[in-house]
Amino acid sequence: MFPLRDTQRSFSFPAITLLLIVLNLMVFLFELSLGPYLRDRFLAVYGLVPYRASLFTMFTSMFLHGGWMLVLGNMWFLWIFGDNVEDAMGHGRFLLFYLLCGFAAAFTQVFFEPFSRLPTIGASGAIAGVMGAYFVKFPRARILTLVFILFFVTTFEVPAVLMLAYWFLIQFFNGVGSIGYSSASQGGVAWFAHVGGFLAGIVLVSLLGTRRHAWRGSYY
Hints:
By secondary structure, the protein is mainly α. Helix content is 61%, strand content 10%. The protein has helices spanning 15-33, 36-46, 55-60, 68-89, 91-112, 124-137, 160-178, 183-186, 191-208, and strands at residues 2-6, 142-149, 152-159.
């Protein structure tokens, strides 16, 4: 399943969401401008390498990506879910929330793979946090979803709570299944970063709170 758009209306301009998308794309274009050796070196220095993790690389790794499909997929998910969460939280709180989710995702990945020497990169952990917040705040929204059934392609409107719960369970069970097959030796998806980010989003959106708009009542 691939989300195309949601039905939840936003009432403010998603400035931070757009800024994050632009920053991620600009950093990725800079990566492409480097030769293969320099690009690998750049990712090794600024990516999150669990065995020598630092707060600095936990931050910088949020803006690095390993390919066009990864960066475009991440930015698409951020666009679909980020504007509503930013609208609910306000711009400043949303930026803080996004970064904290990214750190939570990084800490989770380091906890489960502390000896990995491969760089962990990507915004997906922070975006998983945005999805967790959406799961809490907009469970009754519907997501227009592209579905592949054998040789046929169709679209369905899926309740956000079901789609996001399905997505989380895939991340969780893939993470559990990857235990013992460390990405330090074979590479792959940082499943536990997604799990940690999603759970952090659920918690942090409640701790940081959301704003209310008088003209449309509460978000709850």
